Amino acid sequence: MATVREGNKTVLVIVDVQVRVMAEAWEAPRVIANIARAVERARSQRVPVLWVQHESDGMPHGSPQWQWVPELKPAPGEPLIHKRFNSGFEQTTLEAELGRLGATHITLAGAETNWCIRATAYGAIERGYDLTLVKDGHTAISMQLDDGVAVEAPHVVDDLNITMNWLEYPGRRTRTVATEALDFTAAS
Q1: Is 184 among the domain residues?
Q2: Is residue 5 part of a domain?
């Protein structure tokens, strides 16, 4: 059983909004603009913003593909977390940074919905954090399965949004909020 976090400290976690990841992502310009608005709102409300950045063989650390999209840049002093696995928690400094900040509530946005956003969301909930998913602030890439079935990105996004509104864990809250309705003081 997870330790439920006591308190009301919210942070914004941005995951993998990187050049290669967003190159073919569904509605990338709209999603990037929404994430940029969420970051701006968090900063204006003095909510910490944490940046989780993926690296892999196809996206090596420091490469042009690994960089954040030009519309998003971490501000000086905002924690940067580097990862090699889907979840932002696995073998990273994310949990230590959240502990240092006293976080109890994670607001989450980024890419890709079906992999890193889903894994990080469940990782947060299983570690006792409340979670708000920015419902218009995450995206995926459509996939064609070996049997010819298409898994369309809008359906993947909708599926996780529905899940986060109905998911129940003892002592924790999950929900989704549109960017325009995002109020970090209300989340706390």
Answers
A1: no
A2: no
Place of tokens 């400290």: 9
Query: To which residue do tokens 């969420």 refer?
Result: 38
The secondary element (H helix, E strand) that includes residue 32 is helix 28-44
Using pLDDT thresholds of 50, 70 and 90, give the confidence band for residue 142.
very high
pLDDT for 1: 54
User: Model-level pTM?
Assistant: 0.95
Q: Give the structural domain span for 89.
A: 10-178
Which position has the token pair 């998003």?
72
Q: What is the CATH number of the domain that holds 121?
A: 3.40.50.850
Q: Is residue 97 part of a domain?
A: yes
Q: What are phi and psi of 169, to 5 degrees?
A: -130, 145
> What is 43-60 written as a DSSP string?
HHTT--EEEEEE-BTTB-
Of 2, 188, 179, nearest in space to 89 by CA: 2
Range list of H helices, the chain: 19-22, 28-44, 94-101, 118-126, 153-166, 184-187
Q: Is residue 31 part of a domain?
A: yes
User: Tokens 């976690």 map to which residue?
Assistant: 13
17 DSSP assignment: -
Spatial contact of 74 and 49, defined as CB atoms under 8 Å apart: yes
Q: For the chain, what is the domain count?
A: 1
